[in-house]
Amino acid sequence: MTRPAARGGSRASADRLARLLNLVPYLLARPGIEIAEAAGDLGVTERQLREDLELLWVCGLPGYGPGDLIDMAFDGDRVTITYDAGIDRPLRLTPDEALALVVALRMLAETPGVSNREAVERALAKIEDAAGDLVGAPVEVRLPADTRRVESLRTAVDGGRALRITYYTAARDETTERTIDPLRMLMVGGRAYVEAWCRRAEAVRLFRADRIDAVTELDEPAAVPPQARPHDLSDGVFRPSPDLPLITLRVGRGERWITEYYPCERVEPGDGDQWLVSLRVTDLNWARRFVLGLGPDVTVVSPVELAEQVRATATAALDAYARPAPAARRDPAADAPTPGGDPAVAAGPR
Questions:
Q1: What confidence tens digit (pLDDT) does each residue in 214-257 have?
Q2: What is the DSSP track for 222-234?
Q3: Per the domain annotation, does 241 fall within a domain?
Q4: Same domain, 121 and 177
Q5: Are 24 and 81 in contact (CB under 8 A)?
Q6: What is the pLDDT averaged over residues 111-125?
Q7: Is residue 176, in this structure, part of any structural domain at all?
């Protein structure tokens, strides 16, 4: 329900920015113009024009002190720009600025979920043409993902086809076959995702592109049911809720990074350099693998079930290392000297 309003807000902001950029040269060419006349020419109300003029007071050059900001004088209902802060001059980009802008636009053009990639590419072409040799450096932009997989997913989403995918679910450490009806491609936290209606789960799900092992485009169109709604990802992909398991860990200095990487409900000082960290997890199987991967500076405080699972898995791993490996069958010919060569080298390819 809030998405159309958000798009409308973005459109209104863009319209206002364009109006402000046009307002300064317009007023410079008409010193002392009446506000009512200017409002009529610009197609806005007098109230809106006065709000725009109030915003111009705080616009200007970096430093934003006296002599940096746009200034104007009012005489009753007339307005005159007395200092334009250089906004009437054509934009001149330094080589570094031009290159940074080109790289940013190239990255945007490659980002999944961009709805109007053609507009980005047109803007990029214009800037490259205007900048000329300034952006001639051999720069290639690639997203941190499987480019071919992302492109195939993007093609399927744009084409409105259903997909059959082989997907690895890290939370359960399992691979499943699913048929999905794509909604959109998007980039969250530097990772590419396809958001789709999953026919197996009968719900909208997010699938990480790098965890999709195989993709088959079906001959049938995507059939997204009316009740399917995209997720609100403004706060990230994982959104902790009270119904998820809560785990508490005692972490040393070397593992404090998890408090910055994962959403934590509580972080408290413990003994010495240790912290007590509480966070929600999707399930305890994921938490078990998570804790085992952290190392010896982490201890499970609660729940007891998680501590027992970690202990059992670690004990089984140690037992496996303690058992001697089965003796390998040897080929007597492998030990025979090889004329003109090292026996070890000759035995290697065998």
A1: 888 888 888 888 888 887 766 566 666 777 889 999 998 888 88
A2: P---TT------T
A3: no
A4: no
A5: yes
A6: 68
A7: yes
Confidence of residue 304 (pLDDT cuts 50, 70, 90): very high
Statement to judge: residues 169 and 216 lie in one domain: yes
Residue 249 three-state SS: strand
Question: Do residues 101 and 48 touch, judged by C-beta distance below 8 A?
Answer: no
Which sign, positive or negative, has the C-alpha torsion 307, 313, 314, 315? Answer: positive
Domain assignment present for 226: no
Residues 79 and 58 in one domain: yes
75 falls in which pLDDT band (50, 70, 90)? confident
pLDDT of 122-174, one tens digit each?
Answer: 777 777 776 665 555 555 555 554 566 777 777 777 888 888 999 888 767 78
Instruction: Please state, in angstroms and rounded to a whole number, the distance separating the CA atoms of residues 193 and 169.
Output: 13
Q: Which domain-ending residue is among 57, 83, 109? A: 83
Residue-level length of the chain: 350
Q: Which domain holds residue 217?
A: 147-221
Cβ contacts of 2-9, under 8 Å, gap ≥ 24: 3/230
C-alpha to C-alpha distance for 326 and 240, rounded to whole angstroms? 46
What pLDDT does 32 receive? 92
How many structural domains does the chain have? 4
163 located within any domain: yes
Q: What is the CATH number of the domain that holds 209?
A: 2.30.30
Each residue of 120-148: b (16+ CB within 10 Å) or e?
beeebeebbeebeebbeeeeeeebebeee
User: Does the N-terminal peptide bond of residue 303 adopt cis geometry, omega within 30 degrees of 0?
Assistant: yes
Instruction: Look up the CATH number of the domain holding residue 73.
Output: 1.10.10.10
Top-confidence residue, 349 or 147: 147
CA pair distance 224, 196, nearest whole angstrom = 8
The last residue of a domain, from among 205, 221, 237:
221
15-31: average pLDDT? 81
- Whether 250 and 208 map to the same domain: the answer is no
Q: Please list, in sequence order, all residues whose beta carbon lies within 8 angstroms of the beta carbon of residue 348, skipping any fewer than 6 positions away.
A: none
- Give residue for tokens 């307005």: 79
Q: Tell whether 121 and 158 lie within a shared domain.
A: no
